[in-house]
Amino acid sequence: MAPKPTTLKQRLEDRAREWRVAVDETFDTVTSLIAYGRRDDKDPVVLKLVKVQGDEWHSGEVLKAFGGRGMVRVHDFIPGSMLLERILPGRSLVDLSVNDRDDEATVVLAEVIGAMSPDAAMSAPTVRDWGGGFKRYAASGQHRLPPEIVSQAEQTYGRLQDSQTRPRLLHGDLQHSNVLFDEERGWVAIDPKGVVGELEFEIGAALRNPIERPDLFATPAIVERRLSRFAARLGLDTDRALSWAFAQAVLSAIWDIEDGSAGHGTPPSLRLAEAIRPMLT
After folding, report:
1. Separation of alpha carbons 257 and 254, rounded Å
2. Judging by beta carbons within 10 Å of its beta carbon (0-12, 13-18, 19+), is residue 34 exposed, middle or buried?
3. From residue 8, how far is each of 42, 51, 240 by CA, in Å?
4. How far apart are the C-alpha atoms of 157 and 180, rounded to whole Å?
5. DSSP secondary structure code for residue 90 in this structure
6. Which of 33, 36, 57, 246 has the most other CB atoms within 10 Å of its CB?
7. Residues 70 and 174 sit within 8 Å (Cβ to Cβ)
8. What is the pTM of this model?
9. Left (φ > 0), alpha (ψ -120 to 50) or beta: where does 22 sit?
10. Burial class (CB in 10 A: 0-12, 13-18, 19+), 114
11. DSSP β-bridge partners for residue 196
12. How far apart are alpha carbons 35 and 24 in whole angstroms?
């Protein structure tokens, strides 16, 4: 007789017992169950359980590879579960960006990216693996996105992936809602997906966020201003970063469709792609 599937509640109880965590409160996100508590009745911690295997299933291993440099520290982890330091007060960079402090938020993002330095190799998806979304979209028979922009994005993505320099482990979703303020450590990143690619790839997610406010990012002037700040602090190839941002924005719209987006109106990421397209050389 096959064992019964482990429920999310059972997983939480097992991890809390194994990692000596007294849970104070829990809440759900779309992808995870989050528990706040204390380890050994002392240290405030976050116990995160990813609901299904996907982008964040191996986040614990990614966090270990970065060793707390620019990112939240991980105390323990197994696939799909991780015990993290608690970031307090934990406000996100979204607050700065939507309150007329977008330049300041961009500088913080650049500084966090500059601080992130992996010291260990791990088996992680590559940007080539992620680019498979273009072929899946073509095979699906979907026609919700303008075919000419999808074609250009796929060609751009392919050219960039074949000409990368110094690929390394990246966060993969480094944007405003994934950078939180800690009263002791300052701004740190959370929720890495983990992807291997060149540094210019990392900028794409930041340029299409905060996702709920496309008016703050989907204009050429704002793209140029943000890029100039990233380049000044990270020494980026701005042409490659811009091209990656264009191709990733279209790929992000494809992922939204794959995730069941209702498809009403123009996706925010596609609005960014349309703003960048005339800027490409």
Report:
1. 5
2. middle
3. 25, 7, 42
4. 30
5. E
6. 246
7. no
8. 0.93
9. beta
10. middle
11. 126, 169
12. 7
Write out the chain's pLDDT in tens, 281 residues: 444 567 999 999 999 999 999 999 999 998 999 999 999 989 999 999 999 998 899 999 999 999 999 999 999 999 999 999 999 999 999 999 999 999 999 999 999 999 999 876 678 999 999 999 999 999 999 889 999 999 999 999 999 999 999 999 999 999 999 999 999 999 999 999 999 999 999 999 999 999 999 999 999 999 999 999 999 999 999 999 999 999 999 999 999 999 887 666 789 999 999 999 999 97
Q: What domains appear along the chain, each with residue ranges and CATH number?
A: 8-86 (3.30.200), 90-279 (3.90.1200.10)
- 273 and 149 Cβ atoms separated by less than 8 Å: yes
For residue 18, give the nearest of 103, 96, 77, 67 by alpha carbon: 77
Which residue's entry shows tokens 């140029």? Answer: 224
What the block records as the tokens of 14 is 């097992």
- Number of Cβ atoms within 10 Å of the Cβ of 56: 22
Positive or negative: CA dihedral 124, 125, 126, 127:
negative
